[in-house]
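re: ur question from earlier - yeah i can do the single chain one, its not a big deal. heres the input i used so u can compare w yours
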Amino acid sequence: MKLFLAALLAVVVLLAGGIVLLTRDFGEEEPIPSSDPVSSSDQLVRQDPLAPTLSMNGELLSPGLIARGNEAASGELTEIAGSAVVKRGETLPELVFSQAPDQATATLAPAAGGEPVFLGTLEQLKDFSPEKSGEYYLDLWASWDGREEGFAGLTGYRISLTYEREILLAIDRQEVPQGYCVILRASNLPEGADAVTATTDLGFTPTFYAYQGEQIALLPAKYSSNTGEYHLTLTAGEESRDFTISVTDGGFDVTVQQFNVDQSVADSTVNNQEANIVYEQVTRPLKNLGDPEKYWEGPFQLPIDKQYVASSSTFGRIRVINGSKSQHAGIDYPAPTGTQVYAPNNGRVLFAGYLQLTGNMICIEHGFGLKSWYYHLDAVEVEAGQMVKTGDPIGNVGATGFVTGPHLHFTMSVNNVYTNPEQYLASDPLA
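and the output i got, formated as tokens:
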């Protein structure tokens, strides 16, 4: 009996000691945060009072992720910790940690999705501004190694930033020769506000296309435009800017050319009402087309071998043919029938076939409404819808349609306005 009472007493003592120990462990040690995720997105989110805090313009932000020590952090940031608008000329809102992190990275990406536009430090981000206005997500990750007294682990924050950059409206030149183009540009446009318009008394309504983060358009000065000043207004959203464009002399050959075309040829082509109607019916829809993709790359090349570049009739020259006066809308390259004709740059064939007025004809769209035209061919070697590359054979010189002899009539246009091909042979129009 004595032995039983002694054993029972020992058990009671041990139990009492355990209660004291448990009371000491939970009463004296720091509380251990729960390891269960509380986010709806399968991320590791902790409310840890020891984690350094982040404030934006003095306002405390709620973290999207906290991981202590070596704990694994998984998932993506989805919770928005805060938001701010970065207006034109302003810098990033002040972001301050209560304890400077040992490492920190900042990633800025469009809120609608897409590749990040910035990856670096928070300090570097202060001097950065995206090219395009709109809403972005700033994902900020900071970590502490615990070598100093305090928190060891990492935190993650997602901040919504709306950038409002100054809309830039510009032109590449204020003086333009007859038959040449002005490049119109609009940049820093807000998301969903890409519509840009241009009004001008140059007799042309430009179409804008997206190109390298900008909206661009080609504005041609017609070869028949009078020299002098013209007005242009660019508008994007609430922004508007006025320009004055001076059209200068195109440098055309002032020597009038006299031609006499065989009357039977003239009667079946230029004097034939039906032939003219068919030409208009075919070409007018082509002229108004403009592919939203820039196919061409770099300067245009000659469409014919250099030995034939001595033109018989230059662009803009006044000609009298069978008594009728007109201004030449292209360049004529005399060459023997069968001489190879090449694509001067990349593009999409819009038309390849026979028209009574022009003979065998090819039209190539190079993007943004910029087209090249080839008349009087002996034969065509491409078909509508075909993509061509610079230097590809497309046809042969001939004497079909309204002609006096074998030659290539070569011209280029911006939509329905013929322009001097020489400007594209010199350099990339958008360079």
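The first strand starts at residue 54 and ends at 56. not sure if urs matches, ping me
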